[in-house]
């Protein structure tokens, strides 16, 4: 394949060789958002199209709002790596991956410009319409790759996406600074917390022990839904926000 017509109107096309077929005839029903974590957008674009990298994404959104499509939405891009959500472990086969140009935490993490966010929202709306993506399946790389990835990070505005009709989100409950559960705790309250996180979709094991895995899961949740303090400690704000998100799922799960 030397080229293709973009799935997203007005997107530029730069073909990446790093793709394959979606497994078991799976169709994309999820969007996974990443940041590039590189010094420049041009460098990230080149890397995603370099066969030596063995990584790719369907789209790249530059800081100036330009959208580049590198893999057709019908194909399987290599963006999620080892990951899981709601028991699915081949996230690449059920998702559309979007890289957002940003240097990331290691290179001077910065806010995402409005022009870039506006372009991203338009792109996500198009993907949602084409593939009937449910709001709760618009996710961060950090949601599906627990403890391994932190992108797009706490400076990313999930609020802006939700206000435009993209993603599942509630305004975070106010903080009071009092810890309710923390690493080292054990018992029924920890088991309930783990069960709620797993019910939402996170790949956390239900053990009744607030272990390292639970802490990184709480951090991932906070990084998406309660960004003002990402510490892995469960306070009333974290717990209340999680309960309200579950209640807002289709069917009113709580």
UniProtKB/TrEMBL annotation:
Enzyme class label: hydrolase
Region entry Disordered, spans: 1-22
Keywords, comma-separated and alphabetical: Cell wall biogenesis/degradation, Hydrolase
UniProt domain N-acetylmuramoyl-L-alanine amidase: residue ranges: 16-153
A molecular-function term among this protein's GO annotations: N-acetylmuramoyl-L-alanine amidase activity
Gene Ontology biological-process entries: cell wall organization; peptidoglycan catabolic process; peptidoglycan turnover
Domain of life: Bacteria
E.C. number(s) listed in UniProt: 3.5.1.28
Reaction(s) the record says it catalyses: Hydrolyzes the link between N-acetylmuramoyl residues and L-amino acid residues in certain cell-wall glycopeptides
GO CC, alphabetical: outer membrane
Keyword Metal-binding: no
Xref: Pfam families: Amidase_2, PG_binding_1
Family: Belongs to the N-acetylmuramoyl-L-alanine amidase 2 family.
Name of the protein in its database record: N-acetylmuramoyl-L-alanine amidase
Species this chain originates from: Aminobacter carboxidus
